[in-house]
Amino acid sequence: MAFQDLLDQVGSLGRFQILQMTFVFICNVIVGPHSLLENFTAAIPSHRCWVSILDNDTFSDNKSGILSQDDLLRISIPLDSNMRPDKCHRFVQPQWHLLHQNGTFSNVTEPEIEPCVDGWVYDQSTFLNTIVTEWDLVCEYQSLDSIAKFLYLTGMFVGNTLYSHLTDRFGRKLLFICALVQLAVTETCVAFAPTFKIYCFLRFLTGISIFSIMTNGTLLVIEWTKPKFQAMATALLLCAMAIGHIVLAGLAFVLQNWHHLQLVLSVPVFLLLVPTR
Q1: Which residues, including other chains, have CB under 8 Å from residue 105's CB and lie 6 or more apart?
Q2: DSSP bridge pairs for 114
Q3: Helix, strand or coil for residue 113?
Q4: Could you report the per-residue pLDDT of 193-212, keeping only the tens digit for each?
Q5: Are the C-beta atoms of 166 and 182 separated by less than 8 Å?
């Protein structure tokens, strides 16, 4: 007797299937946001070089005391090709003559500029801080942000290969629980990562676990559901992930500190382990 025939005998959409689908639905709502979390925790805000006459509270200058912030910015930061303040360079010395030229620079020697040797100032109107502002992943270090995302996707590839092999040997339930534990621990630790290297390593481990949770959860539901209900079950699980993404956007609007957002999304994963015991 085939397994689908056996399901017809015992019930293809009974209480067991409904409870199982409900659990995986909730799991997808909680786990799904972690795949898009870095869209917010790794957001790159507007930034410019730190300059003393703008950002040093103890700086005192007779000329700067009567100037507006826009004027101080004009004499401190050069313009880029789009005529906006450069994000990665500043003038070595304040260019006071720029206040009297109305934007014409033809008769003036090219002023000397330098990189942001004293760090950057970030716009905090949208996010109080992100991993970019915490570890200064901008300008010549901006590629490090992409490396973090690449390692996460690499982890998903490794997890797909590793967990698929282990699932065939030890079963879906055991590997599903192990992946949940791994996700809960690593994503919670990410919120307290002291260095960028540790952050990348933990996100790599997250990538390994998250693919197994989504794949095994979906297959657990489909395998125990009659074919005529499988399309409905798959659609519901995809909707659960969409709901999770909506929740993520709402939380990111409220929690502007990336540590808090990371922690609020990670701790509920531990609650998913209670029904699996």
Answers
A1: 98
A2: 90
A3: strand
A4: 999 999 999 999 999 988 78
A5: no
What 3-state class would DSSP assign to 95?
coil
What's the DSSP call for residue 257? B
Q: Are 130 and 145 in contact (CB under 8 A)?
A: no
**Inter-residue long-range contacts of 132-136, CB under 8 Å, 24+ positions, other chains counted:** 132/42, 132/43, 132/44, 132/45, 133/45, 133/47, 134/258, 135/195, 135/196, 135/199
Apex CA 18: angle with CA 13 and CA 23, to 5°?
Answer: 145
* 74-121 pLDDT, tens digit each: 888 888 888 888 889 888 887 777 777 655 555 557 778 888 888 899
Q: What is the DSSP string of 5-31?
A: HHHHHH-SSSHHHHHHHHHHHHHHHHH
CA-nearest of 30, 20, 28, 80 to 271 is 30
Burial (CB < 10 A; 0-12, 13-18, 19+), residue 172, is: middle
Cα(72)–Cα(53) distance, integer angstroms: 7
Q: At what angle do helices 172-190 and 143-170 cross, to 10 degrees?
A: 160
